């Protein structure tokens, strides 16, 4: 574990955004360029967006382009991670590829519109991955925080309407930006936010790109000590008593 991930206080991460289209080869080329740029700037972790491999224009196209974990896209990104000797976190169903092995962990989105998929998230040391719609459910982040998670990541592809209304409030990092095809545009503004809610970096809402951010876990721990919300949280049954019978 010590070889796979540096001490978290030393991590320098890159948060990326892009405009995925149905052209998987072109999307992969953009991802490769972003990862290489991040590595040149010193990143040891690279966060790519939800739907980085493709966003189809309709259901049929989406299904026809789908791949398994053994597919070419995941294999190519794992190669890039190994070549750059970094931990590349790849988001579609969220598999984590390192330079030590092809797939370290897999996370599948827990919350889908009108669909229940009762799977647990995975943790990698003190990190945890959620997905887009998951961030509207605080129970996930609260549960993982109680288990020791210190870095929560939510790769997302918010629509323009919901992104403009809710993104800053939810304080997580979206990763898709701009028009993917004539039926779909995403909000962009991939963010990195500190534990006090200060935005450390913003990729903007127009173009693919990345930001580089230092992870300061000491500030996180100080914030938790000074504002011990989890210690003050009542048991779940207390909140249930407020519900009307």
From TrEMBL:
What is a single Pfam family found in this protein's UniProt entry? CN_hydrolase
All residue ranges annotated as the CN hydrolase domain in the record: 11-217
**SUPFAM superfamilies per record:** Carbon-nitrogen hydrolase (SSF56317)
Kindly give the InterPro entries that the UniProt entry links to this protein.
C-N_Hydrolase (IPR003010), C-N_Hydrolase_sf (IPR036526)
Output the PROSITE patterns linked to this UniProt entry.
CN_HYDROLASE
Q: What is this protein called?
A: Nitrilase 1
Organism of provenance: Neogobius melanostomus (round goby)
